[in-house]
TrEMBL record:
<keyword id="KW-0411">Iron-sulfur</keyword>
<protein>
    <submittedName>
        <fullName>4Fe-4S ferredoxin</fullName>
    </submittedName>
</protein>
<keyword id="KW-0677">Repeat</keyword>
<dbReference type="InterPro" id="IPR050294">
    <property type="entry name" value="RnfB_subfamily"/>
</dbReference>
<feature type="domain" description="4Fe-4S ferredoxin-type">
    <location>
        <begin position="2"/>
        <end position="31"/>
    </location>
</feature>
<keyword id="KW-0408">Iron</keyword>
<dbReference type="GO" id="GO:0046872">
    <property type="term" value="F:metal ion binding"/>
</dbReference>
<dbReference type="InterPro" id="IPR017896">
    <property type="entry name" value="4Fe4S_Fe-S-bd"/>
</dbReference>
<dbReference type="GO" id="GO:0051539">
    <property type="term" value="F:4 iron, 4 sulfur cluster binding"/>
</dbReference>
<feature type="domain" description="4Fe-4S ferredoxin-type">
    <location>
        <begin position="85"/>
        <end position="114"/>
    </location>
</feature>
<dbReference type="Pfam" id="PF13247">
    <property type="entry name" value="Fer4_11"/>
</dbReference>
<keyword id="KW-0004">4Fe-4S</keyword>
<dbReference type="InterPro" id="IPR017900">
    <property type="entry name" value="4Fe4S_Fe_S_CS"/>
</dbReference>
<keyword id="KW-0479">Metal-binding</keyword>
Amino acid sequence: MKRVYAREEYCVGCRLCEIHCIVAHSNYPDNIVKAFKKQKPRPLPRVTVEEKGEVSFALQCRHCEEAPCTKACITGAMQKDPVTGVVTNEEERCVGCWTCILVCPHGAIRRDESGKKVASKCDLCSGIDDLPACVKNCPNEALVYEEREEQVKAG
C-alpha cells in the first residue's frame, strides 16, 4: 500500500505539513485563514514535526501491517481497512482510553482533548484528497507518498 515517507535530508522543519493537515481536516479545507481564525477548537495536526539539532522530519502513522492499535482498541474504533490498508479511528466509537497511544511503536497517535477526548492520527486524507495534504504542500518534497517493497512492521 502507499504510505507517507519522510526524507529528513530535505526537511527544514517549516511545519507546513502540520498547517496543511489542520486545514485539510477543518471545516474550511479550502481556506487556510478561515480554518485558523474561525474554527474553534481547531483540529490537531495528524502529522508532527520532530526536531533535534539540524535534523527534522515529519512523523505520522505508518499504517503498520499488523497494526497493534487496532488490536488494543477496546471499542473497535481503531480499524484497518482490509482493502486499502489504511488505519483509521472512528471518533464516534472512541472513548479516549488511550490504549492505542500506549501500544503504538512509532508514537504517531495523539490525544485530542479539544472535544470528546478522542485519539487523533493520520488517515492519509482518505476521502479528502488523492494526495495527503502534508505531501501535497511540502515545499521541499521532504514527504513522499509511494508504495515500497518493505513492509512497515510494528515495533
